[in-house]
Amino acid sequence: QVQLVESGGDWVQAGGSLRLSCAASGRVSNINDMGWYRQAPGKQRELVATITSGGSTKYGDSVKGRFTISRDNAKNTVYLEMNSLKPEDTAVYYCNAVVNVDYYWGQGIQVIVSS
């Protein structure tokens, strides 16, 4: 089992920045990919960014060039640096960890971007 705890969510004005963190505990040695997904009210959960244990990254089209995902394997933590935030970035952000074929999720953290 892997437990994920997100932090860093907040309210921010458009154009601002936030940094989300997600700390993993439990069977962390088996974690492959980690990432962030988000879900806005009335919408499906969507990919924000993922990062492999080797550092390869993938981003959703709507955040490319504005968000950066990084990972500290020694701390079992994944980060999401969000810049140039837009009101449409408002959502609950979920941390994700993949262990073999199993997906683990954090409880979610709210990000609100006001115009």
Provide the fold topology:
Layout: E1 2-7, E2 11-13, E3 18-26, E4 34-39, E5 46-51, E6 57-59, E7 67-72, E8 77-82, E9 91-99, E10 102-105, E11 109-114
Parallel strand pairs: 2-11
Antiparallel strand pairs: 1-3, 3-8, 4-5, 4-9, 5-6, 7-8, 9-10, 9-11
In short:
This protein has 115 residues and is mainly β. The chain has strands at residues 2-7, 11-13, 18-26, 34-39, 46-51, 57-59, 67-72, 77-82, 91-99, 102-105, 109-114. 0% of the residues lie in helices and 56% in strands.
How would you portray this structure in words?
- The chain is mainly β and 115 residues long.
- It is built from no helices and eleven strands.
- The protein has strands at residues 2-7, 11-13, 18-26, 34-39, 46-51, 57-59, 67-72, 77-82, 91-99, 102-105, 109-114.
- The strands form two sheets. Strands 2, 4, 5, 6, 9, 10 and 11 form a seven-stranded mixed sheet that branches. A four-stranded antiparallel sheet has the order 1-3-8-7, with no helix packed on it.
- It is globular.
- The model has no long low-confidence stretch (mean pLDDT 96).
